[in-house]
Amino acid sequence: MTGTHGVESIDALIEALAAVGYQAERRLATAVFLSLHLRRPLLLEGEPGVGKTELAKALAKVLSRPLVRLQCYDGMEQREALYEWNHAAQLMHMRAQQDRTQPEQLEQEIYQEKYLIRRPLLQALNAPEPGAVLLIDEVDRADAPFEAFLLEYLGEFQVSIPEFGTITAAYPPVTILTSNRTRDLNDAVKRRCLYQWLDYPDRERELSIVRAQVPLAGEALAEQVATFVQRLRSAPFISAFSRSPGIAESVEWAKALVALNTLQLDPEVVQNTVGVLFKQREDIAALEPLLEALLQPAPVVGTA
Ligand SMILES: Nc1ncnc2c1ncn2[C@@H]1O[C@H](COP(=O)(O)OP(=O)(O)OP(=O)(O)O)[C@@H](O)[C@H]1O
Ligand SMILES: [Mg+2]
Question: Is the overall model pTM greater than 0.85, yes or no?
């Protein structure tokens, strides 16, 4: 196995990701390549729906490794992220053995591996060859103590379980962290990772994602969707909305339009489907007066 996990070049990685349906721009592919090559976790930050989570899924497919996912949230505890003991099974063991076994012996017996419930971080450390892809999703939602705990994990790929000992990864997981930047992450966590900001795609990449994921849309409709969403995200329209639709919304919108047998965008069909693009009442209200301008035909590029 090579240092890059069998991925020989950035071009090969772009191609392999595309083959599993993920269109990566070169900068992102370079960051992923380096993260594989240097065996360092990769922290992805970006707006919602720009493909952070999807990248980890696609990478697991490319590397033929299982994806282990830890979805972070406020108040998440170590026992949900790492491990906990199967108390019910331990109790049954104690009841069955208490008359026959010395207390010290019994204590040893109940802290055996078979009573350990592995949560995602431990599953990722224990994954058999060639190892897992570990996705620590939306790490900004977890709290500071969890981040502090992650420091050791990310640095050494090992954890210590007081009753059991230290567990070190035989095959360290390829690790992706994502953040929506609802708060700034700990600098020490960032230092242990390579970093990549994921932007909204340009029109060509968005078009090619819509084409690939919604083939039934047809070329004309796919182009209109890409143009419309790109305009929404650029001046002067962008300032009218509280947030811009992501790639996820473009893809869903194209699917919705296909379901309605739409061949061409017009103000009415946009209004009827606007709930796919915007999830805030104020944004939906702000869209209406801008529709005509947004639906202007695209200027023809490249002709005099
Ligand atoms: N580069 C891409 N290539 C192909 N599809 C993409 C790409 N980026 C995003 N998508 C599509 O957008 C959807 C949403 O992407 P994803 O869930 O990864 O966003 P995210 O950045 O994790 O958003 P959030 O911050 O809300 O979790 C994916 O399911 C996929 O259909
Ligand atoms: Mg996500």
Answer: yes
Total number of domains constituting the chain: 3
- Nearest bound ligand to the CA of residue 51: 1
Verify that 192 and 95 share a domain, yes or no. no
Interval between CA 251 and ligand 1 midpoint (Å): 9
3-class DSSP state of 229: helix
Q: List the CATH number of the domain containing 61.
A: 3.40.50.300
Closest ligand to Cα 19: 1
* Each residue's pLDDT tens digit, 232-284: 999 999 999 999 999 999 999 999 999 999 999 999 999 999 999 999 999 99
CA distances from 222 to 25, 47, 205, 255, 276 (A): 20, 22, 12, 10, 16
Binding-site residues, ligand 1, Cβ < 6 A: 21-24, 46, 48-54, 178, 180, 209, 213, 247-248, 251
- Same domain, residue pair 35 and 54: yes
* Shared domain check, 188 and 49: yes
Q: Based on the domain organization, do 37 and 168 belong to the same domain?
A: yes
The region that residue 51 occupies, defined by phi over 0 for left and psi between -120 and 50 for alpha, beta otherwise, is left
